[in-house]
Structure formats: structure tokens, C-alpha cells
Design brief:
The complex is a heterotrimer of chains A (284), B (294) and C (267). With 284 residues, chain A is mainly α. Chain A is 79% helix and 0% strand. The radius of gyration of chain A is 26 Å and the shape is globular. With 294 residues, chain B is mostly helical. Chain B is 74% helix and 0% strand. In chain B, helix 8 runs antiparallel to helix 10 and helix 10 packs antiparallel against helix 12 (265-293). The longest helix of chain B is centred in the C-terminal third of the chain and has 35 residues, at 210-244. In chain C, helix 5 (125-135) packs across helix 6. Chain C has ten helices and ten strands. Chain C has 267 residues and is α/β, with parallel strands linked by helices. In chain C, strands 6-7-8-3-9-10 form a six-stranded mixed beta sheet, with helices on both faces. A four-stranded antiparallel beta sheet of chain C has the order 2-1-4-5, covered by helices on one side. In chain C, strand 4 and strand 5 (66-67) form a beta hairpin. The relative contact order of chain C is 0.18. Classes of the chains: A mainly alpha (284), B mainly alpha (294), C alpha/beta (267). At the A-B interface, helix 2, helix 3, helix 4, helix 7 and helix 8 of A face helix 1, helix 3, helix 4, helix 7 and helix 8 of B.
Chain lengths: 284, 294, 267
């Protein structure tokens, strides 16, 4: 590689990119501002202030009556259950699809070179499974879990089951994509060494690939579980079980003290899950 | 013929102290047991009917429901509504994320331990109890505020704002902005706390005051990371913005709500397709911009 | 029948880097040979073709009568099982315990299910222990591999090859990252194993002294070509000079630096 000539260093590259970008950004900003109907004055108008006052005064004190709290006990537990099962299904789906969707596992890199060269049928097979895996993951994660939830509610009825399926599918897509990114960032030399003993792909995967990335893998999965707890709480808004159902009811009845109680419960649930996952992460 | 020399006596294998005789310790067993229990309890409670899922009834229901959605409705009025919904959703996510950035930036500098009361910038301060406590107050307030903002899910914020300012895309913007502001605030805070102390120390030794150090040493380090996180959150927000309309906050969500309640399955599929395309577009855009930043 | 037969074997990376250039080679079963030459000469690439990790770009390579390009899937793995490789570095998976890394030598003959079970509860631990005892570090059997020194890790890699029990041992600069005192020990250990069990041994060596002292056949590789293939008494000083001359790190004919070449080779 030759060293660059002096003159080419002095001449700075006048790229158009920053100007183009700022122009696009500004026009997008102005159009969006208008389109989204942004009115900061809404809070200062009479109606806005009235509503704000009604809201704040209605919230305190939170409804801590035994009646209400015992009513919330079961939905709260249900939310956790949905999050656990949903995350579990998400891992069951995302893990194999993520592996197949890793380029260096399916079609490229040192693990596939010898196997695939000189055999067109194998190459095509590998590429097909790779593209299909990526396509399915992309589909699953680009449709928000909310949309999945009400589709499942229409399909299998109200209740926690739809919530579990919705989270399983949507989070499965997310987990799978991130898993393949994690898998691609590995040191391939020990994998080559394992391959030289005659191991098959799955053996190489479990002996060399997964052990290298285990902390990242578990860490991200736990993080997704935390998100799942919050998502499970919300899915109830479409009837998929958990606290969400009650939030909707209380809001519609303008019973803000109940809403505040539910939010406090949610806060403690998330904090608990946060604490648990931090403990598990520390072990690794 | 094996390369290993045959031994006469049985070798004495040095098992690690916490696994005598090669059996997992009691602690491992109890951990496994509690995980299994958590799993079984959740299975039972979430009313999963896996057998039903694979049977003709359950799985069949899902398949027949999906079949009913095809083909997607591509008639001009529907397409126009979907298109407007998509652009509105984009607008909501765009302004919402920017609002979040603004909120996060205003609060995070108070919510970072090393900027407010401890660490390098304060090494030379006399350890006067009450002054230190005084500085703790804005820190605690900022941290709690961020916590509050991010614990309340966007949907709930949307419900609240719909109540406060009425229906339409505006409450969606606010809900996104406020919740994501909390999330970004926490992420930014972590970045600030991990900042490289070297430039700070060298600038401090020249006699610069704290504000100058902030602008010359800290911000240049953290700004690319901040922007990267914001772009990443935008990917999340576009999905949220698409569904906030369900509670009345505009965008595609609102149209989906109508389509469901009126049982317009084909329209629903069209809207879902639009969501898919919109989300994929924003994902690519965000990834592209993130590469440019880093 | 030759164990290895190479006819004009060539390997080109990315249409730019000719790592191996029309090498002809024949190796009999049970032979011991050392390959020497400057770094970047193509010795490692040659080995990676010999153990079926890479395919030649041109030329033919036969292993025990099978042409390598015809091997796929299960047949390919069976052939790989018969070849044990020791790399210069990164032989082992860092976060696994030594026991698992050693037992990985069995992967070629274990079913997938059995190998997964072994990760939870090691199968045939005694054999691993004996293999480690043979290389002198049996007390480290439950240590995490990344806590060992470079020399210890090389010995674990040798133990793994012992467990694998192949017909051929390829050692790619096994002692370059190791203390000189330990280097001789390791080279002699591998030679002893090869003699006792009649396994073919091919070793890439940086140290010309070790090659000439212990191997009955020395092959010199330069710029991807085999410069000479002789017994050590016939390797003259002038030959050695020719082998190692003209080697400058950042000035190759193809316009690539050493760094760039390495990146191409290791993708």
C-alpha cells in the first residue's frame, strides 16, 4: 500500500452530506411538527388546566383499600406469568432461527468453506435456510406485539394465552436478530480448531460458539424479560390478560387513584425483576 | 492404537471443592429447582394450551383467522388512509424522539453522580457535610424523575395525555417523548458515569471551571454515544407510535382500531403491511445513521 | 499408498493473494517431516488445506486415496477426524474448563446428544485425566482454560489430539508462543508420540535448529512454493540463506502488507 501523496492530504473532502442531511432533517421536522398537531399551548388553555388539575387531584391519595388491592393480586401475578412464558417461547423460537440466520454459521466463513465449495445444491440449501430464517425474524419483530396481541385475541380468544403468544412471537423476532449479531462477533479460531477434530456444526456451536458469548447472551435475554414484564402489563389493554385490563377499566371510569395504585404495583414488579436479573447476571 | 499410556492404578481425579465426587452442590440444585418451579407456575397460570395450539381447533383457529385476512385491501381510499396514517406515525415518532432527547439532555446532567457531587470534579472540595447534602438533592430529584418517566409505560402515558389534551397525534407525541426521555436519561447517565477521566483531569489542571470542562472534555466524548442511543430508541419508538393510536393517539394505530372493530379484515392486513414497511424503513435509516455517527 | 499426495496445489485468497503456489508433495503414512520458511510463506495455509479446512483453488489433493474436493458432509467429517491439528494459538475455547476442551477430541465420534450431555457431566473423564497426565498438567483438569499460560494451553491442545487419536498430526508452529526451554520438550513429546503410535507427523517450525536436529525430512517453503525437500544433512547453509532472504514485511510483489495478507487469510 503506497502512502498518500501530500497534496491529497491537504485537499479536504468537500462532501455534500452534512448540508443535505440538515436540509432533510429540517423539512422533516417542520412537516412532522405540523402533522402531529403539536400545541404546547394546550396545557395553558383553560380546558387543559382543568383536566390537569382533575387528574392530579384525583390521583392522590392512591387507592390502597384492601378491596382493591386483593382484586389486583391475581392480575399482577398473571402479568409475571405471561412475561415468563412469553419470554420462554421467544427464546425457543429466537434461538434456532437466530443460529440459522447467522451468516457465518449457515453460509459463510471458515466453517462452511470446505463443505460448500463444489456442491451447488448444498450452497443453495444453506442460502435458502439462511434467508428464510432472517425473513421470518424480520416479519415477527417488525409487527408490534400489540398488533400480534389483538390478532391472537381474535384467533384464540381473550385471556393470558394470547398475551403469551404475542410476546413469544414479537420478542422471538427481536431475540433472534440480536442473537445472530452476538454470534457473529465471536473469535473464529477456536471454532476452526474444533472443526478440525471432525465435529459437526451443532457440536462446534455448543462447544465453541455459545460458551464464548454466554454472558452477552444471558444478559440480553434477561433484559428482554424485563421489557416483557412491562409489555405483558400493557397487553391487557386489548384483553390479553394481566394488569392492563384493569388499567383500562380504571381510566375509563376516571378513577385515577386506582390507576396510581396499579402503577405503583407495576413499579415494584419491574424493580423486583430488575433486581433478580442483576443477581443472575452477577453470577456469570 | 491410542496415544495414551495405560495406567495400572485408577487415577485420582482432583474434583473442585464445591463439587465433591463430581455432584453439583446443594446450591445449584435449589437454584435449578426454583427455576423449574417458576416455570411450571407460569405455565399453569398463563393458561397455555399447547396441545390446543397444535390441534386442529387451536392452531386451526389461528390459521383460519389469518386466511380470512387475505387478500389485502388495496383500493384507493384504503391506501390513502394507510399512507396518511403511516406518515402521521412517522411524524409522531420523529417529534416524540426529539422531545425525548431534549428532556433527557436537560435532566441527565443532574442525575450523574460524577457530575454533581462526587468523583474527580469534586475531589478538592472540603468535605462539609451540609454542602454535600445540598448537592444530593437535585441528584435525587433528577434520578427519581427519570425513574418515574420510564416506569410508566408509553401506553399509559398515552391514556393520560389523551385525557389531558384530547384525541389525536399530539398526546402520542407527548407520551413517547416523556417515556423515552426517561429511558434515554438513564442510558445517558450510564454513559456519563463511565466517561474517560483523563481529559477531565488534564483540563481541570489548567484551571477550567466545571462548565468549561463539561463542554470541552465531556460532551465531545459522549455525544456520539448519545446520538447512537437516540437513533436506536427511534427504532423502538416507531413501533410504539404505530400502536399508540389504539388508545386514540393517532397514526396507524387509530385506523387499526377502527378496522378491527368494524371487522374489516382485509383493511387490517393492508395496515399491518404498511406498519411492516414503515418499521423496516426506519430500521434501515437508523442503522445507516448510526454507522455514520460512529 | 501415500497418506498425502498433492499435485500442483494452489490457494489464492480474494483473487489477490497467492498463498500457496503449485506445490507438489507426497507424504507416507508414519513419516515425520518439518516445514520451515519465513512467516507468510504459506505454511499455515498449506496445513489448513491438509486438514480440510480450506479447499485448494487449483490442483489436486488426495488424502488416503480420496480426492478432497469429493468430500462433503459426513464423509468430510470422518476424514477430518483422522487428522489432528495443533495451531499456534487459539486452539481452545477460553471459557470452557480444561476437561471439556480435552474431551472435545472425541467430538468426531460422539453423537451430538452425547457431546451435549458431556458438557453437563463429562463423559469418560478418566481418559481426559490420563491424557493430561501424559503432558504433565493433570492438576489443571477443572481450571478454566483462559486461566492457563500459553505453554500450558499448548499442552492441553496436545492432550486433545491424544484423545482424538488421529492417523496424522499436523502441528502448526506449536512452540512459537512458548518458552524456548519448553519448546524442545513439546517438540520431543510430539515426536515420541508419533514414533510410538506410528502416526504421521508434520510440523511447521520457526526454529530451523529444532527442525534440523530432530526431523528426518525438512521441507523449505518460500512464497508459497516448495524450495527444497531434503534430509537435514543435505540442507546447506546457502540453501537456508536463499530460503530466508529477500523477506521484507511490507513489500510483497502483490502490493499487500503482512497485515493485509493476514486479514485476507483469516477473513
Amino acid at each position: 500500500m503506497r502512502s498518500p501523496r501530500l497534496s491529497s492530504i491537504n485537499r479536504s473532502e468537500k462532501s455534500l452530506f452534512p448540508y443535505l442531511f440538515s436540509l432533510l432533517f429540517l423539512s422533516a421536522f417542520l412537516d412532522s411538527w405540523w402533522r402531529a398537531g403539536v400545541r404546547p399551548s394546550a396545557f395553558f388553555e383553560k380546558e387543559g388546566r382543568e383536566h390537569l388539575w382533575k387528574f392530579l387531584s384525583g390521583m392522590f391519595p392512591p387507592d390502597l383499600s384492601w378491596n382493591f388491592l386483593s382484586l389486583m393480586f391475581h392480575p399482577a401475578l398473571e402479568t409475571i406469568q405471561i412475561s415468563v412464558m412469553g419470554t420462554f417461547i421467544a427464546v425457543v423460537m429466537g434461538f434456532p432461527l437466530g443460529i440459522l440466520g447467522t451468516r457465518t454459521f449457515s453460509v459463510g466463513g471458515v466453517l462452511n468453506e470446505a463443505d460448500v465449495k463444489g456442491s451447488l445444491s448444498r450452497l443453495v440449501l444453506r442460502w435458502t435456510s439462511y434467508c428464510m430464517a432472517r425473513g421470518i425474524l424480520s416479519l415477527f419483530r417488525s409487527i408490534p406485539e400489540f398488533v400480534w396481541a389483538f390478532m391472537f385475541v381474535r384467533a384464540v380468544g381473550l385471556g393470558a394465552f394470547s398475551g403469551v403468544l404475542a410476546i413469544g412471537v414479537a420478542y422471538g423476532g427481536m431475540l433472534g436478530k440480536v442473537y445472530s449479531e452476538i454470534f457473529e462477533g465471536v473469535n473464529y479460531r477456536p471454532l476452526e480448531a474444533l472443526q478440525s477434530t471432525g465435529a459437526n456444526k451443532l457440536q462446534i456451536f455448543f462447544y465453541g460458539w455459545l460458551p464464548q458469548v454466554l454472558p452477552n447472551f444471558v444478559s440480553y435475554t434477561l433484559y428482554r424479560w424485563e421489557c416483557a414484564v412491562r409489555a405483558s402489563a400493557i397487553l391487557g389493554l386489548v384483553g390479553a390478560g394481566g394488569l392492563g385490563t384493569q388499567i383500562e377499566i380504571s381510566m375509563r371510569m376516571f378513577n385515577f387513584s386506582e390507576v396510581l395504585t396499579i402503577l405503583i404495583i407495576l413499579f415494584f414488579m419491574v424493580a423486583g425483576v430488575d433486581y433478580l436479573s442483576a443477581k443472575v447476571r452477577a453470577i456469570l | 492404537m491410542n496415544g495414551i499410556n495405560p495406567e495400572v492404578e485408577r487415577p485420582h481425579i482432583p474434583w473442585p471443592s464445591h463439587e465433591p465426587g463430581g455432584r453439583p452442590s446443594l446450591w445449584t440444585y435449589s437454584l435449578l429447582a426454583s427455576l423449574l418451579f417458576l416455570f411450571a407456575w407460569s405455565y399453569q397460570g398463563s393458561e397455555i394450551r399447547l396441545s390446543e395450539l397444535f390441534s386442529r381447533e387451536g392452531g386451526g383457529q389461528i390459521v383460519s383467522y389469518i386466511k380470512k385476512l387475505f387478500p389485502p385491501d388495496f383500493s384507493p381510499p384504503v391506501l390513502r388512509e394507510a399512507f396518511h396514517g403511516a406518515i402521521e406515525t412517522f411524524a409522531i415518532s420523529f417529534i416524540g424522539t426529539l422531545l425525548a432527547l431534549a428532556i433527557a439532555l436537560s435532566v441527565v446532567f443532574f442525575a450523574s453522580r460524577n457530575l454533581i457531587y462526587s468523583g474527580l470534579l469534586y475531589e478538592m472540595e472540603p468535605r462539609q457535610g451540609w454542602k454535600r447534602t445540598l448537592r444530593l438533592i437535585p441528584y435525587l430529584c433528577a434520578k427519581s424523575l427519570l425513574n418515574l418517566l420510564r416506569t410508566i409505560p408509553e401506553m399509559v402515558w398515552a391514556l393520560i395525555f389523551v385525557f389531558l389534551v384530547g384525541l389525536g397525534p399530539f398526546p402520542g407525541v407527548l407520551a413517547l417523548g416523556v417515556h423515552t426521555g426517561g429511558v434515554l436519561g438513564k442510558l445517558f447517565g450510564e454513559v456519563l458515569e463511565d466517561v474517560d477521566p483523563q481529559p477531565i483531569e488534564s483540563l481541570q489542571s489548567t484551571g477550567a471551571n466545571r462548565l468549561q470542562i463539561l463542554f470541552y472534555a465531556i460532551l465531545p466524548q459522549v455525544l456520539p454515544q448519545f446520538i447512537s442511543y437516540t437513533l436506536y430508541r427511534w427504532e423502538v419508538n416507531i413501533r410504539v407510535a404505530a400502536v399508540l393510536g389504539f388508545v386514540g393517539a393517532g397514526g396507524l394505530g387509530q385506523r387499526i382500531y377502527i378496522a378491527i372493530n368494524l371487522f374489516f379484515g382485509n383493511q387490517l392486513l393492508t395496515l399491518i403491511l404498511f406498519i411492516y414497511v414503515l418499521v423496516t424503513l426506519v430500521d434501515y435509516l437508523s442503522a445507516y445513521l448510526r454507522r455514520k455517527v460512529i | 499408498m501415500n497418506q498425502y499426495r498433492l499435485e500442483k496445489v494452489t490457494k489464492v485468497f480474494d483473487h489477490r493473494l497467492v498463498a500457496v503456489d503449485e506445490i507438489d508433495l507426497r507424504v507416507q503414512s508414519g513419516e515425520r517431516a518439518a516445514l520451515i520458511g519465513p512467516s507468510g510463506a504459506g505454511k499455515t495455509t498449506l496445513f489448513r488445506m491438509l486438514n480440510c479446512t480450506l479447499r485448494p483453488t487449483a490442483g489436486k489433493l488426495w488424502i488416503n486415496g480420496d480426492e478432497v474436493v469429493t468430500l462433503h458432509g459426513k464423509r468430510l467429517r470422518q476424514v477430518r477426524r483422522k487428522i489432528g491439528t495443533i495451531y499456534q494459538q487459539h486452539n481452545l475455547v477460553p471459557r470452557l474448563k480444561v476437561a471439556h476442551n480435552v474431551l472435545a477430541g472425541n467430538l468426531g465420534q460422539w453423537s451430538t446428544v452425547r457431546s451435549l450431555i458431556s458438557l453437563v457431566r463429562p463423559v469418560d473423564l478418566e481418559m481426559a485425566y490420563r491424557a493430561l497426565r501424559q503432558v504433565g498438567i493433570e492438576e489443571k483438569i477443572f481450571t478454566r482454560t483462559d486461566e492457563l499460560s500459553g505453554g500450558q494451553q499448548q499442552r492441553v491442545a496436545i492432550a486433545r489430539v491424544l484423545i482424538q487419536d488421529p492417523e496424522v498430526i499436523l502441528a502448526d508452529e506449536p512452540v512459537s508462543s512458548v518458552d524456548p526451554s519448553l519448546a524442545t520438550v513439546i517438540v520431543k513429546l510430539l515426536l515420541e508420540i508419533s514414533e510410538r503410535t506410528r502416526k504421521t507427523l508434520l510440523m511447521n517450525l520457526h526454529s530451523v535448529d529444532l527442525a534440523l536436529a530432530y526431523f528426518p525430512r525438512v521441507i523449505g517453503i518460500k512464497n508459497g512454493k516448495a524450495l527444497f525437500d531434503l534430509s537435514p544433512d543435505k540442507v546447506s547453509d546457502s540453501l537456508l540463506e536463499e530460503l530466508y532472504s529477500g523477506h521484507l514485511p511490507d513489500n510483497h510483489e502483490n502490493g499487500l502488507t503482512d497485515e493485509e495478507s493476514k486479514a485476507l487469510v483469516y477473513q
